[in-house]
Amino acid sequence: MGLGLMVGYLADVRQEDPEFADEFIGRIKAVEACLERQGLSGYSEPPDLPEDDWFSCEMVGYSGLHHLRRLAAYVALDQPLYTPSLEAPDDDPVVERYYEAVGDGDISDLPFQHLMLHGDAEGFYVPVDFVRVIDPGELFDDVGGAIGSAHRLLAECKALARVLELPEDLNCESDEVWEAASAPGAGKLRWQQFGIESFSCIRLIRGCEASIKTGAALVFC
Which domain of life does the UniProt lineage start with (predicted)? Predict the structure, then answer.
């Protein structure tokens, strides 16, 4: 079990679990309400997205996202990069400094907030461009967490991809990506050495690209 990413979630559950589809539509309506309160429009989840346009993948458990967040914190605070490893980045002091500096997202212009301030187990990135991560307030439970922008997350992950020296045309399901994720520190190239970070980054990039192309949200599930 671990974190999954999907674009086309509503279309999928309407086929596979119609009873749950009504519950998920309620979550979408809560997301739309949050966007409307911010004066944002342009998101309407397509209910019948063709299966060829769906995107889904698994991350490296739940910890893979935190490896990428650690990298983001080090880059944001201009710190020398750490030695990559399989060990989960719990209680990293640089990550703690990042969260102390950024607060709830209203007190700092530090980069990577759409990556850092979103949930790590569920929630939405919608294909709408906005600066600040949205706190749903009293609708938090209905939404399932903070709401991020797929456009902003894409830009943030592409910035981290440049740090990782990730090839732009890398297939996120290729054997070399899986191998790098299983053996961080190995390999001759930087992206291979930071294999878990690269694995997570390229998957988020592909998910955001699919979201923006189709108009469907990138869902953490």
Answer: Bacteria
Q: CA 156, CA 162: separation in Å to the nearest integer?
A: 10
Task: Kindly calculate the radius of gyration of the chain based on its CA atoms and give it in whole angstroms.
Answer: 17
Domain edges within the chain? 4-220
d(CA 9, CA 77): 35
Contact present, 126 and 149 (Cβ < 8 Å): yes
Angle, helices 175-182 vs 195-214, to 10°: value is 140
| Least confident interval from 17-31, 100-114, 145-159, 200-214 | 100-114
Q: What one-character DSSP code corresponds to residue 118?
A: S
> At 3, which amino acid appears?
L
* Length of the chain (residues): 221
Quote the longest CA-to-CA distance of the chain.
50
